[in-house]
Amino acid sequence: MGLFSNQLLNVIEWNESNENMIFYKWHNDEIKKGSHLIIRPGQDAIFLNNGRIEGIFKDEGNYDIESQIIPFLSTLKGFKFGFNSGMRAEVLFINTKIFQSKWGTKGPVNIPAPGMPGGMPIRANGTFSFVVNDYVKLIDTIAGVKDSYEVEDVKLRISSKIDQLMMKWITKEGKDMFNLNANADVIADGIKTDLNMQLIDSGMTIKEFNIMSFNYPENIQRMINENAANSMIGDMGRYQQVAMTNAMTNGTMGGNRGNATSGVATDMVGMMMGMNMANQMMNNMNGMNNMNGMNNGYAQPQAAPAGGMAPGAKPKFCPNCGQPTGEANFCGNCGQKLV
């Protein structure tokens, strides 16, 4: 990282080989006469004396310490190198880029849900980015006691808060528990605001916080997918009847439980969806019965009698003597009335 030798150091620099390092502190017994400061692109160099900021240098380049740096230091601007003595100071190199990292919940977050003991177990993952924006606060809280700091350190700090904030922003304003991805942006914005309140005292700020996906237990996700598919079917009532039959036949609602928590949650989701289907089926059946009881202005066919003839129909043969009747209203053989 830094290239130095105890008494012969003449180059102060940070060879940034670790892209995830946020800052690096160079310190030695003293800076000798003739030393140079090298600032690379994406770096700022801060001179510190007894923990106090003496000067901040942002422009990349190779600088002579005595002629180009010391004249701009606040309390050391009059410093003169002696024959055998050097200047005692530390140099803090700051990585100025925007850092990117992934995040994920440590385990299932049990979000309170009506009728579900223990809550709905949900996992989530995504990405976030941050940047150092306040050097004074960074030095006061972190750089004053550490020689380096990495993205992983920030990630660990954020991860300790994610689960709590996830629960807070999912339950706020009654989000749809079975369609959280539709509200991902709103939930992410809320979490970002709260995380910034956690990091602002350390001189860092969250630039972006994104939720890539919410993950439900496998059985519950299957039901959510099936329910979503229902909305794409034209005849919803008919599809729900089929879905209800399949669920009862295959044991979808209560079977294939991975664990106790998943089983309880699955049963509750199945009950909710089943009740919705049952209500829809009853409504459809009532609607069909009402339709069957209406004439809509058309004559309804009458049931045929046991002999196979509809009321008022003329027989083809006389029921008394068996002679063909033709078109007459009375039998020509025996005089039997035919209609």
Number of domains: 3
Q: How is the largest sheet built, in terms of strand order?
A: 5-4-7-2-11
Give the overall average pLDDT. Answer: 79
Q: How would you classify the helix and strand content by structural class?
A: alpha+beta
Using the coordinates shown, work out and report the CATH topology of the largest domain. Answer: Tetrahydropterin Synthase, Chain A
Strand content: 15-25%
The CATH architecture designation of the largest domain is 2-Layer Sandwich
Question: Count of DSSP helices?
Answer: 7
**Structure summary, number of beta strands:** 12
SSE arrangement, N to C: EEEEEEHEEEEHEHHEHHH
Please report the distance between the alpha carbons of the first and last residues.
116 Å
Helix coverage percent: 25-40%
What global shape is seen?
A: rod-shaped
User: Which spans have pLDDT < 50 for at least 5 consecutive residues?
Assistant: 1-7, 297-308
CATH class of the largest domain: Alpha Beta
Full CATH superfamily name of the largest domain: Band 7 domain
Largest beta-sheet details: 5 strands, antiparallel
- How many whole angstroms does the radius of gyration measure? 41 Å
Q: What can you tell me about this protein's structure?
A:
The structure is a single chain. By secondary structure, the protein is α+β, with helices and mostly antiparallel strands. It folds into 3 domains: about 10-95; about 100-215, Band 7 domain (Tetrahydropterin Synthase, Chain A, 2-Layer Sandwich), CATH 3.30.479.30; about 220-285, no CATH class. It is built from 7 helices and 12 strands. It has helices at about 65-70, 135-145, 150-170, 185-200, 220-230, 235-250, 260-290; strands at about 10, 20-25, 35-40, 45-50, 50-55, 60-65, 90-95, 100-105, 110-115, 115-130, 150, 205-215. The strands form 3 sheets. The chain has a 5-stranded antiparallel beta sheet with strand order 5-4-7-2-11. β9 (about 110-115) and β10 (about 115-130) form a beta hairpin. α5 (about 220-230) packs parallel to α7 (about 260-290). The chain is rod-shaped, with a radius of gyration of 41 Å. The protein starts with 10 loop residues before the first strand and ends in a 47-residue tail after the last helix.
